[in-house]
Design goal:
Number of domains: 3
Number of strands: 16
Largest sheet: 7 strands, mixed
Distance between the termini: 27 Å
Number of helices: 25
CATH superfamily of the largest domain: Malic enzyme, N-terminal domain
Structural class: alpha/beta
CATH class of the largest domain: Alpha Beta
CATH architecture of the largest domain: 3-Layer(aba) Sandwich
């Protein structure tokens, strides 16, 4: 190992410095006030940058909000206009500039530019306009930006790793996290990006966007987060034929070479950043499942496409069955669409059934719980007679239906036929097959259950399996509905009331799952930690008090909701003995105050003092 590598190895180990909306709003207000008071009470932060260096550093730059004293001390007096702005002034100015952009992609570009200039202002603008701007910084607009990444590229935004430089991967990794103890690494190989597929080196955009959401709604310090692109090639011919494509211009790495590349990367994370959360994002379905299975017991690992989608769906289902006064183990669940999302949901709900049954008179095995699921893909019901050529390897044996339930394997097993035979209590769509939940399907389901639970989760809106208005009408207003995209409230037949449609947005839970794992410094994220987070999210549902209200909290309350999820995760991590953090208070109220003090708010500018030996 080179002297340089040894030096960077040592440096890399150093540390750089109520359930109703009104109740949630009051929590948010008090939290912001507490953060501001805490910021005011802190001693000035010692920073070792001056002049253009501090203005060009997004972590420390305040722009026109630098005070008179700071301008003198940091050599900024002649570099800035005379007036001193407040953060609120800057937010108003930035929002005017944002609104002047004519298209969503231009707005996305504007926000990306702001992020590269001033983190505090960037996050303050997003928090002020969270619901409006979330579709711009994430799906669907971020997908458009990723698809055109090579043409929109201005500056790097993370760590790019490719096969030709595999021998230098450790050097490059340590360069990227020099002097930092990371809390979060978000990594993608870009094979399955946001419904638009293989995007090669553009995958850095989804890693970066996810890291932003962690900071925005869970309070992960962006200085302790790293976005990573594993640019292992692409099978996207449009990219390979594009003369401006800036990624690794080869076909996608597969097989043992791919596995070895991932093994080396994960090994570096475990070696040099042993306490960080490693978040896998938008890997292809086969690799996503195999990587999660391989590494989840070796490090703190999370896959949002599998576990996050499953967790938020579980939360919505827990709220729905609370309305129906039933139990999860009593459900009959049909899942239409068996890709990574559908399988992730099936596994999460199955695991929750097993865990819930442990406290009952009759515990269920995984196989017994799996027997309560019917999975459907393009070939119909997934059953043994389809043969191995039509059943993907990642589908577990216990989810494959036995032929004894169907006439010699020849009976039609499309969605309607399965609904007629199974009489499901829960129907979940992850197929991207628009309109698949037809009037006949919904009416057939509604004949056999008092409150059908219907979750058309496919994104975007145009690919949703059924419009909530139709599901509501066809079920005579009895359906309990959650969707993958936002929909307006729908009229309840025969009433002047409206039914509020829940949005199964992963951002309501995965940042909280991550925050709880990070704060507890857990050696791994266990199934019970995820279920505990889901249960806490379901407890925040307005539907528990009024069944016509949403099964999940509003997305605008995501910061406070995720904090509650994080607390539940911390409690469970301690209970299971996987927490490695010392000094966590033993009482719940003390733990809440402790956790609140650990969260990065970024809602106010800190006061700076120049010190040549300070943070750089």
């Amino acid at each position: 190992m080179s002297t340089r590598l040894l030096t960077r190895t040592s440096r890399a180990r150093l540390i750089a410095s109520g359930h109703s909306r009104s109740l949630t709003m009051s929590i948010s207000t008090s939290t912001s006030a507490a953060a501001a008071a805490a910021a005011a009470a802190q001693s000035p932060l010692k920073v070792g940058l001056r002049g253009g260096e501090i203005l060009n550093n997004p972590r420390f730059n305040k722009g026109t909000a630098f005070t008179r004293r700071e301008r003198d001390e940091f050599g900024l007096r002649g570099r800035l206009p005379y007036a001193v702005d407040t953060l609120d002034d800057q937010v108003k100015r930035a929002y005017e500039q944002y609104k002047a952009r004519q298209t969503d992609i231009q707005k996305n570009s504007f926000l990306q530019s702001m992020k590269s200039q001033n983190w505090t202002l960037f996050y303050a603008v997003l928090r002020t306009h969270l619901i409006e701007m979330f579709p711009i910084i994430y799906t669907p607009t971020e997908a458009e930006a990723i698809a055109d990444y090579s043409h929109l590229f201005r500056r790097s935004e993370g760590l790019y790793l490719s096969p030709p430089d595999v021998d230098q991967m450790e050097v490059d990794f340590l360069d990227a996290c020099e002097g930092r103890e990371l809390e979060l690494i978000v990594v993608s190989d870009a094979e399955a990006i946001l419904g638009i597929g293989d995007q090669g080196s553009g995958g850095i955009g989804i890693s970066s966007a996810k890291a932003v959401i962690y900071s925005l709604v869970a309070g992960i310090d962006p200085a302790k987060a790293l976005a990573v692109s594993l640019d292992v090639g692409t099978n996207n011919s449009d990219l390979l034929d594009d003369p401006l494509y800036i990624g690794y211009r080869e076909k996608r790495l597969r097989g043992q070479k791919y596995d070895a590349f991932l093994e080396k990367f994960v090994g570096l994370v475990k070696k040099h950043q042993p306490k960080c959360l490693l978040h896998f994002e938008d890997f292809g379905v086969t690799n996503a499942q195999s990587l999660l299975a391989r590494y989840r017991d070796q490090h703190s690992i999370f896959n949002d496409d599998i576990q996050g989608t499953g967790a938020v769906t579980l939360a919505a289902l827990q709220a729905a069955i609370a309305v129906t006064k039933s139990k999860i183990v009593d459900q009959r669940i049909v899942i239409y669409g068996s890709g990574s999302a559908g399988l992730g949901i099936a596994r999460q709900l199955r695991d929750a059934m097993v865990l819930e049954s442990e406290s009952s008179d009759k515990s269920l095995s995984e196989e017994e719980a799996a027997s309560k699921f019917w999975l459907i893909d393009k070939y119909g019901l997934i059953k043994k007679s389809l043969g191995k050529d039509k059943i993907r390897d990642e589908i577990e044996e216990s989810f494959i239906r036995d032929e004894k339930d169907w006439k010699d394997g020849e009976e039609e097993t499309g969605l309607l036929e399965v609904v007629k035979k199974v009489k499901p209590t829960v129907l979940i769509g992850t197929s991207t097959h628009a309109g698949a939940f037809t009037e006949e399907v919904i009416k057939e389901m509604s004949k056999n259950v008092d409150r059908p639970i219907i979750f058309p989760l496919s994104n975007p809106t145009k690919l949703c399996e059924v419009d909530p208005k139709d599901a509501n009408d066809w079920s005579d207003g009895k359906a309990l509905i959650a969707t993958g995209s936002p929909f307006p409230p729908v009229d309840i037949p025969g009433s002047d009331k409206k039914y509020v449609v829940a949005e199964c947005n992963n951002a309501l839970i995965y940042p909280g799952l991550g925050l709880g794992t990070i704060l507890s410094s857990s050696s791994k994220m266990t199934d019970k930690m995820i279920v505990a987070g889901s249960k806490r999210l379901s407890e925040l549902s307005s539907a528990l008090n009024d069944p016509d209200q949403s099964l999940l909290p509003e997305f605008g309350d995501a910061p406070d909701v995720n904090f509650e999820v994080a607390l539940a995760v911390i409690d469970q991590a301690i209970k299971e003995g996987v927490s490695r953090e010392e000094g966590i208070p033993t009482d719940k109220e003390g733990r809440r105050k402790w956790a609140k003090g650990k969260v990065w708010r970024g809602s106010e500018y800190l006061e700076y003092q120049y010190d040549e030996a300070g943070i750089r």
